[in-house]
Amino acid sequence: MSQGRIAIVGTGLIGRAWSISFARAGLDVALFDPQDQAAAVALSLVAGNLDDLDKQGLLRGRSPREVLGHIRVAGALADALDGATHVQECAPESLQTKQELYVVLDAAAAPEAILCSSTSALLPSAFTARVTGRHRCLVGHPINPPHLVPAVELVPAPWTSPEVVERTRSLMVSIGQAPVVMRRELDGFVVNRLQGALLQEAFRLVADGIVSAADVDISIKKGLGLRWAFMGPFETIDLNAPGGIVDYIARFENMYRTIAASQERLVPWRGELAQRIDAQRAQVLPRDSLGERQNWRDRRLMALAVHMRKAEEEHGA
Ligand SMILES: NC(=O)c1ccc[n+]([C@@H]2O[C@H](COP(=O)([O-])OP(=O)(O)OC[C@H]3O[C@@H](n4cnc5c(N)ncnc54)[C@H](O)[C@@H]3O)[C@@H](O)[C@H]2O)c1
Known about the structure:
By secondary structure, this protein is an alpha/beta fold. The protein has helices spanning 13-23, 38-55, 64-69, 77-81, 95-108, 124-128, 162-174, 191-207, 213-228, 233-238, 244-261, 272-284, 290-315; strands at residues 5-9, 28-32, 71-73, 86-89, 114-117, 137-142, 151-156, 178-181. It contains 13 helices and eight strands. α7 links the parallel β7 and β8. The longest helix has 26 residues, at 290-315. The protein is globular. Nicotinamide-adenine-dinucleotide is lined by residues 9-15, 33-35, 38, 90-93, 97, 101, 118-120, 141-142, 144.
């Protein structure tokens, strides 16, 4: 069985974005969705995106036609799974749906195929416990959209075979994604735990009237976020003291410890605080313009992906 046959099961927002990631790396992708015409619609939406990606040099040297040639619509699940070595499941975020689906996938996919879920927050043990071939199931959680944001969190259930994690890691690296390999499952995985820690502080700062929501956003987008686009927090602090990370800790651990003592109190996000932040946001972005602004975000993300690729070529990653 070759490394390169992918079945995407569920072809909504995430499924169709994954198909670009796999197909531009030259892998054959079969799309299956139980909803009538959904896979065909997904394929036409992908086709509509490829020219833009090509103009920005984001198709890994392949033409839109070549990439499209690697993607096909499968009329039945069995057809999509036929010869697949990796199944990227992108069904709705429902525990019951995934519990039922994994039994079906396990029965129908070739024994060597890996069953990888895009779930945002369900633990793999919660929907693979009763699956006979549960050793070949894991989570591969992308950040939307995976063809522009490389990180993907690989989360094993307690029974996932290490070889399955390693094969998935290696597949993701080969298509240009950047795997974050968790050694065991944990609520929120890694990315949402980090984002959650930051959001708790952001809400607390606004709740306590220390700053506006807009100023919280400035501190990230015009401050920390500029470095975070190409370095993580550990590399950031390693470079922020003359003697590296140990020196940084010697200088700043006490300061962060003092801050941490005031960060234990959780403020409720709902209710008055939600209304207050919504009113502040409405002044900069009318509530009926969210869709337009989402398109702007996606264009900025594409421009950033282009810049990141060039900057890595010029300066190293
Ligand atoms: N949207 C995001 O930002 C995001 C980010 C990361 C991960 N995810 C995860 O990816 C998965 C898919 O999310 P989405 O945003 O693409 O949802 P979506 O609603 O856009 O697409 C889901 C697709 O699954 C199909 N479907 C319904 N029942 C199914 C079944 N039993 N088997 C297979 N397919 C079925 C639907 O017809 C639909 O086309 C979810 O688990 C979600 O948590 C989403």
